[in-house]
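[audit] Reproducing an earlier prediction to check determinism. Same input, same settings, fresh worker. If the tokens differ from the archived copy the diff job will pick it up downstream; this log only records the rerun itself.
[audit] input (238 residues):
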Amino acid sequence: MPPDSVDSADSIDSAETAPLEAALFDFGGVFTDSPFSAARSLGTELGTEPERVLELVFGPYDADTDHPWHRLERGEISLVEARDEILVLGRAEGVESDPFRVFQRMAGSHGAREAVVDRARRLRAAGVRTALVTNNIIEFRERWRQLIPVDELFEFVVDSSEVGVRKPNPRIFQLALERLGGIAPEGTLFIDDWEGNVAAARSLGMRGLLVEEDPRSTLDELDRILDGLENRARPRRA
């Protein structure tokens, strides 16, 4: 693993002492199946190294670069423009790296992960402030918002294509903290399916939870957090 990688099953720092005040969620790969898994699947079908197809389509995702997908997520170019440029990058290596084929694989997914929706709803009901911090694109904005009850689950959304900055750039996390109005990073949990994004949040002092393709370990960790919140909320007997 690279030096900034994080563990997944119980990746929240064991040394945490500050009470949990806020939880920031990613969208794709957390509330839905992962687009990264779909890109790797395309690589397998093409007979190409899956990680290489992943990088051709989505760029080096541990960084914020001028790759066409990154510019698309920052709202700088259109999906059509990004697709054309990504196809050129792939064809230079003899790879048909069409992002639309990745989307076709995702179209057959199971929709929203209702268990994750449930945990987000319970966190907010327990008094934890919740928000969504997502790398997304303008063309998908209306569609993904139809998959989960966004306004019910979150106080606000920080969408990369709206604010012009994307994960793992620390500025997007700082924007979220500013909108939370003074909550310390140490009191904030960030949940994402990409190691580099979790590492970036942790570098600012946040707690991090990495979601794997099978989200059960994440659900277990969120249940542990909810149990702790509910125990603290119960009145003590004399």
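[audit] rerun output stored. Observation attached for the diff report: Strands lie at 22-25, 129-134, 156-159, 188-192, 207-210.
[audit] end
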